[in-house]
What we know:
With 115 residues, the chain is mostly beta strands. It has no helices and eleven strands.
Amino acid sequence: xxxxxxxxxxxxxxxxxxxxxxxxxxxxxxxxxxxxxxxxxxxxxxxxxxxxxxxxxxxxxxxxxxxxxxxxxxxxxxxxxxxxxxxxxxxxxxxxxxxxxxxxxxxxxxxxxxx
Length: 115
């Protein structure tokens, strides 16, 4: 079993910054992808950023240049640094682990950007 626990959500003004962290534990294979997804009320859950065990990254176009994803394999954590936040970034942010064709999800953390 895999456990993912997010932290770092909160309220921030537009233009501000916020950092999210997710700690993974359990049965984690060497080849995997860690990522961040977000879901606003009444909308689909969309990929924000992801990073492979090899360090390759992928970002949604809406966050390119503003968000940075990183991971610490020794600590089994994935981090999302969010800068220049916009009200449209308001959502529940979930971290996810993908391995062996299976997705594991964290419980989510609320990010609210006020204008």
